[in-house]
Amino acid sequence: LATGPRQNSSVFYEIRTYDIKPSKMKEFVEMVNKYFHLRTAHSELVGFWSAELGAMNKVVHIWKYENFAQRTAVRHALTNDNDWQGKFISAALPLVEKQHNEVAYLVPWCQLGKPPKEGGVYEWVTFQMKPGGPALWGEAFRAAINAHINTGYTKLIGVFHTEYGLLNTVHVIWWNENPDQRAAGRHSAHEDARVVAAVRDSVRFLESQKNMLLIPLQCSPLK
Predict the structure, then answer these.
(1) Three-class DSSP category at 26
(2) Interhelix angle for 134-151 vs 179-190, to 10°?
(3) β-strand 155-164 against 96-106: which pairing, if any?
(4) Any bridge partners for residue 92, and if so which?
(5) Distance between CA atoms of 144 and 146, rounded to whole angstroms?
(6) Final residue of a domain: which of 58, 80, 104?
(7) What are the start-end ranges of the H helices in the chain?
(8) Among residues 49, 90, 144, 188, which one has the fewest Cβ atoms lying within 10 Å of its Cβ?
(9) Into how many domains does the chain fold?
(10) Residues 88 and 149 in one domain
């Protein structure tokens, strides 16, 4: 089964999700904001968020790599970085309950976007699609995404398709000024015949979906 899009670039993104001990979330975020410059000295951070709705005590961060050789070199360098290991890792690991990572590519028809201004919120939507990859559901999924873009109430940041992890998973990141704007836009979209038609076509290939409302951390390039 074809599970991956045809990639014209070796660039990929590592998505890391950490569940933090409930009583330690504040401490973890403070440590990230204080010491994460030690980590970003080694490779490019795309964004770092904490979950506000849809999950609790969870953080998500995305790293960009030019290829797998670069990631290997970065991971090796981090192991030997005494400041990173001593100031952050040794203190942060006891605060973490669970870690999960995925490797994903941007879908070929999407470029990584930026919000029009700082201070908004991000909606992270995860779609589990039927096996077969974009060759099966890609066109219908793209049409559904474009239908939402055309409503104008939300800003698309990125669409990522997994290469390692649970396959046929698509993560879509949207930006809105605030949760109320997002709620009003969703209500209008549900009454838009174009959106309804596009979603109805795409949902034929859908197994499940879930979402989170995310707040960017101080250290996050995407704010």
Answers:
(1) helix
(2) 110
(3) antiparallel
(4) none
(5) 5
(6) 104
(7) 25-35, 37-40, 68-79, 82-83, 90-92, 134-151, 179-190, 193-202
(8) 90
(9) 2
(10) no
Residue 43 shares a structural domain with residue 94: yes
- 111 and 95 inside one domain: no
Nearest to 113 by CA among 153, 68, 173, 58: 173
**What is the distance between the alpha carbons of residues 113 and 155, in angstroms, rounded to a whole number?**
8
80 and 100 part of one domain: yes
In this structure, which amino acid lies at residue 89?
A: I
Q: Cα separation of 84 and 132, whole Å?
A: 41
Q: pLDDT tens digits for the chain (223 residues)? A: 344 445 567 999 999 999 999 999 999 999 999 999 999 999 999 999 999 999 999 999 999 999 999 999 999 999 999 999 999 999 999 999 999 999 999 998 899 999 999 999 999 999 999 998 888 888 999 999 999 999 888 999 999 999 999 999 999 999 999 999 999 999 998 899 999 999 999 999 999 999 999 999 999 999 9
Domain boundary pick from 104, 124, 149: 104
For residue 99, give both structure tokens. Answer: 């870690």
Whole-model pTM over 0.90? yes
Residues of 15-27 as b/e, b for ≥16 C-beta within 10 angstroms? bebbbbeeebbee
Q: Tell me: do 110 and 166 sit in the same domain.
A: yes
Hey, what amino acid is at 174? W
